[in-house]
Design goal:
This protein is mainly alpha-helical. About 60% of the residues lie in helices and about 0% in strands. It contains 32 helices and 5 strands. The protein starts with a helix and ends with a helix.
């Protein structure tokens, strides 16, 4: 094994990392965070329909005149997930509902391994020997926050792979002994272009990596290598520009209402040494990385300055962003794309230090990030919902977009807890996650333990505003209260009957397209997706979706037959009752429509449904979604 590690350091390290990631990946929680859901839903829309539209209902969606919405996020993650979404249906036909969770997580693992590969290649390009190359690979995959991201639907693994790969390709192209430097330059351009397609802030990456390709090439070859770089980047940059204009009307317009409003110096210390999101806590080897950039610059000035400059740019802009902490995600999420660069630089700095320094920092990083892998951050995000929202002053409110706040019953606005907890050291994810993991390992009545959080609740900003049952929907609470099971790849393919602690990402995509069809008034599509949805997961929620599809499509007989075939528990659900009331309205039967509405209100006095009783029948909304106030809620955010 020692000989193999020396002869083939990258395959050896990647194989070792793959084993650890596969045996610690908690694929049950992929799809538990709403922003990631949007990316996956868009991927399914691309795979199933060749479109990018998704349903209304998320406060940061971009509404379209056709009645649906599009994601505001970069299209790169959705492009990457589209092949998995395309085969998920057949995979679940073979292995059962939820089995495709394994496929989505396999893809995340591969992206983390690609980021680790990029770190190893960058270290090699900077002169590291076999040992250093192995260290760079393993540091990226196992001693950094990327380990925890294999279970999530965030796009950071893809971003890290693109950023690291772009710099690694450019650095290899600049070596005197480079093989096919033109191809490497084109690869650097393609990866930088795909990074841009994944996140618009990486528009800065293109000129920085181009500078490395251009200035490190011999003078007589600069034009050819620059053209190769631009040739690799152009298709993805053009695709990015096209999607920006089609979706938002102009480039860099998807984050309307959000600003660089956070004090920069406050953001800097919180992002580096802060107890909640400090990079040096979650990736201790970053301490060596900063010094490594300087050592690289001594041998290859352009490369060292480019690496340091891009890292400083991302750090400074993140520190000034209103959501400097990334809102959710393990560690400083918005800085995670820098991990491959810092890992390679740490390897370069290591020889100048005592041998134990790198080992100690590596071991500390593994310990910290194993916590994030075994107790996923997505679950912690939901637990923070129990914190009491903080009332904002008039001056503070202007620093936050509308979707980050809610009306204060006493007047004014309150900041949603998830946007404030990173400012409270007592609510550090390292501390709270360790406590949550301990409660699950101990077993017993976990829900009772969760009612008493591990922080002082008599301190301003740390008060609880609701119990876990009140603040967390049952579909998410199950992940907090279920007993610990060792996570591993493939666990979603062996779910026992009735087991609910697994997100159904593919089913969520079907449901999203069924709702989108309702939003657009497309009864034919609503029936198509509704029938597949109900066939896979029969429930009151999916029954209401299919019934609404039949109603919108004017298929009254199909609706009648479907209603009579349902078990009482599904037929008596409030949403299903509203569909029946709307169907009676469609038939002109006011007496029956109001009778059904009264039955619904008797068991579920939902404000939006109660409003129908005050309206004339002709004023009732056209769809169930409009009756639920989905479009009105989004309009109030504008």
């Amino acid at each position: 094994m020692a000989g193999l590690a020396e002869r083939r350091p990258i395959p050896f390290a990647l194989g070792l990392a793959a084993l650890v990631l596969a045996f610690t990946a908690d694929e049950r929680v992929f799809g538990l965070v709403t922003d990631g859901q949007i990316m996956t839903r868009t991927a399914y829309a691309m795979a199933a329909l060749g479109e990018v539209g998704i349903a209304l209902g998320h406060p940061v969606d971009i509404l379209r005149p056709a009645g649906d919405a599009v994601t505001r996020y970069g299209m790169g993650p959705s492009f990457v997930r589209a092949p998995v979404a395309a085969v998920s249906g057949a995979f679940e036909n073979a292995f059962g509902a939820g089995a495709s969770q394994s496929l989505f997580v396999v893809e995340q693992i591969l992206l983390v391994l690609l980021a680790a590969l990029a770190a190893g290649l960058l270290a090699r390009a900077c002169g590291a020997a076999a040992k250093g190359v192995r260290r760079a690979v393993l540091a990226t995959a196992l001693a950094s926050p990327l380990w925890a991201y294999v279970s999530s639907d965030w796009s950071e693994p893809l971003q890290a792979a693109c950023v690291g790969g772009a710099f690694a390709s450019a650095a290899l192209a600049g070596r005197a002994d480079a093989r096919r430097p033109g191809l490497l330059a084109a690869g650097a351009g393609a990866l930088a272009g795909f990074a841009l397609l994944s996140k618009s802030v990486f528009v800065v990456l293109l000129p920085v990596v181009l500078a490395v390709v251009l200035l490190e090439a011999p003078r007589e070859k600069r034009t050819r290598r620059s053209l190769a770089f631009l040739g690799g980047a152009a298709p993805f940059a053009a695709l990015w520009l096209t999607f920006e204009i089609v979706r938002f009307g102009r480039p860099l317009a998807s984050y309307r209402g959000e600003r660089f409003s956070h004090p920069v110096f406050d953001g800097l210390w919180r992002l580096t040494v802060g107890a909640n999101k400090g990079l040096f806590l979650y990736f201790p080897l970053a301490l060596l990385g900063a010094w490594g950039f300087a050592r690289i610059a001594k041998e290859r000035r352009v490369l060292g300055v480019a690496l340091a400059g891009f890292s400083a740019f991302l750090l400074l802009t993140t520190a000034a962003w209103w959501s400097w902490d990334g809102t959710a995600g393990w560690g400083p999420r918005l800085l995670v794309p820098l991990v491959p660069l810092l890992a390679a630089a740490a390897v370069v700095a290591a020889p100048a230090l005592p041998a134990a320094a790198f080992t100690a920092l590596f071991a500390l990083g593994v310990a910290v990030n194993a916590l994030g892998a075994l107790q996923p951050d997505a679950v912690l995000t939901w637990y923070y919902a129990t914190v009491k929202p903080r009332t904002l002053t008039a001056g503070e409110a202007g620093a936050f977009p509308a979707f980050a706040t809610e009306p204060d019953p006493a007047g004014g606005v309150r900041l949603l807890p998830i946007h404030d907890v990173a400012n409270r050291a007592a609510l550090s994810p390292l501390r709270v996650n360790a406590w949550l993991l301990g409660r699950r390992l101990a077993g017993g009545d976990v829900l009772a333990a969760l009612r008493i959080p591990p922080w002082r609740t008599d301190v301003p900003g740390q008060e609880t505003g609701a119990t876990p049952e009140q603040a967390i929907p049952p579909s998410a609470l199950v992940f907090l209260t279920s007993s610990f099971r060792w996570p591993h790849l493939g666990m979603s393919m062996t779910r026992s009957a009735g087991q609910t602690d697994t997100v159904l990402s593919f089913v969520d995509c079907l449901y999203d397209q069924a709702l989108r069809a309702q939003d657009m008034g497309r009864g034919d599509r609503a029936v198509r997706f509704g029938e597949e949805l109900y066939g896979r997961v029969p429930s009151p929620q999916t029954a209401a979706a299919l019934a609404e599809g039949y109603r919108l499509a004017g298929r009254r007989e199909a609706l009648r037959d479907f209603v009579t075939s349902l078990p009482p528990a599904q037929r008596s659900a409030p949403d299903f009752g509203i569909v029946l009331a709307l169907a009676a309205r469609d038939a002109g039967n006011e007496r029956l429509a109001r009778e059904i509405l009264g039955q619904v209100l008797a068991v579920s006095p939902r404000r939006e449904y109660a409003r129908l009783s005050t309206l004339r029948l002709a004023e009732w909304p056209a769809t169930l979604r409009d009756a639920q106030g989905v479009r009105a809620a989004l309009s109030s955010r504008e």
